[in-house]
Amino acid sequence: MSNAAVRTAIFPVAGLGTRFLPATKAVPKELLPVIDTPLIQYAIDEARAAGIERMIFVSHPSKSSIERHVRHDADLGHALRQKGKGKIADKLERDALDDENQEFVFVMQDKPLGLGHAVNCAAKHVLPGAVAVILPDDLILGERGCLSEMVEAYETSKTGHMVATMEVSREAVSSYGVLDAHGSDGKVIYAAGMVEKPAPEKAPSRHAVVGRYILDASIFGDLDALEPGAGGEYQLTDAIAAGIGRLGLAGFKFSGRRFDCGSKQGMLAATLFVARQDPEYAEVLEEFGAVEYGQRVAAE
Ligand code: UTP
Q1: Do 177 and 131 share a structural domain?
Q2: Is the dihedral of CA 204, 207, 211, 217 positive or negative?
Q3: Looking at the 3D structure of the chain, how many domains does it have?
Q4: Closest atom of ligand 1 relative to the 59 alpha carbon
Q5: Does 2 reside within a domain?
Q6: What is the pLDDT of residues 92-121, one digit of tens each?
Q7: How does the average pLDDT of the chain come out, rounded?
Q8: Whose CA is nearest to atom 14 of ligand 1?
Q9: Does the C-beta of 112 come closer than 6 Å to ligand 1?
Q10: What Rg value do the Cα atoms of the chain yield, rounded?
Q11: Is residue 1 part of a domain?
Q12: Structural domain for 285, as ranges
């Protein structure tokens, strides 16, 4: 058994994905691809790179194709090999999660009662220690995975809860949870609290929280005690706030670039960003006048 501080990652994937309808009527948002790689695969790769041993997917019965994606598919592998497509068969095999060693678990959230409720659905299956939460529609691309950077910082920071943060403009703060920051140490920002979607003039900082969390195991007690919050949903941020006095809260300024792939604009930006890194797409980008824009995105 490993002694790592963070061994479990929870992927809440039960939401309705209304911002991406009609694409998400029959296809889960988490399977929408950036070119050829579904968002959920990026999230799995990030968790693996961070040394996560168990991945818990909190899904919905109507989204069973997510499970089909993560499982090894021997028939498909066999059919591909017979067609001489061994390279892609090898890749699919490497990407698939290991069922026998319980590398993954699926639990169902029958009603989308909020992110806090979704995370609590995973409670029975977590390994000892702190847990990571990854929202797959927040795609973070960089040289190192965001979760790898966070796990490293978490092990030395001595705060109970850590959230990924990025600096946004004052006008943009009202779309995010924002840290009430009171000091920093390198990439770690110490916070006294978190404010959900503040008006720009009332925002305590411009450090916006995005979809990566490392949470002390006591989060599950705080989730059990939670009352419905904004929108009548069980809010993860309310449970995090309940533990701040006991555990402390830190933000982490990750080095990659984040794309909100739950929105059409974010998905388009991510697609252009990834396409720019591969000469295979140069002609298409040029033909549709995306080169200049793509270069700007890549340079920022
Ligand atoms: P979002 O609010 O971005 O996802 O939740 P959504 O509700 O699916 O999308 P829109 O806003 O209607 O377009 C962030 C993440 O939390 C999950 C979602 O699947 C998404 O990955 N989630 C949200 C749950 O698993 N359960 C919930 O009750 C709410």
Answers
A1: yes
A2: negative
A3: 2
A4: 25
A5: no
A6: 999 999 887 779 999 999 999 999 999 999
A7: 93
A8: 135
A9: yes
A10: 19
A11: no
A12: 263-300
Residues 49 and 195 in one domain: yes
228 in the same domain as 88: yes
> Does residue 12 line the site of ligand 1, with CB under 6 A?
yes
- Ligand 1 pocket check for 260: Cβ under 6 Å: no
Residue 80 lies in a domain: yes
Collect all residues with Cβ–Cβ distance below 8 Å to 204 and sequence separation of at least 6: 178, 179, 180, 181, 193, 195, 198
Per residue in 174-218, pLDDT tens?
Answer: 999 999 999 999 999 999 999 888 999 999 999 999 999 999 999
CATH number at residue 38: 3.90.550.10
pLDDT of residue 158: 79
- Percent residues over pLDDT 70 in the chain: 96
* Contact assessment for residue 121 and residue 2, using Cβ atoms and an 8 Å cutoff: no
Same domain, 80 and 146: yes
Determine the average pLDDT of the residues in 114-132. Answer: 97
Pair 216, 300 in one domain: no
- Ligand 1 atom 21 nearest Cα: 13
Let me know whether 32 and 66 are in one domain: yes
Shared-domain flag, residues 181 and 268: no
Q: What is the pTM of this model?
A: 0.94
pLDDT value for 296: 62
Name the burial class of residue 244, with classes exposed (0-12), middle (13-18) and buried (19+) by CB atoms within 10 angstroms of its CB. middle
Closest CA to 273 of 249, 247, 296: 296
What's the sign of the alpha-carbon dihedral 15, 241, 51, 36?
positive
Mutate to test the pocket of ligand 1, among 29, 66, 115, 120 (most ligand atoms within 8 A of CB): 115
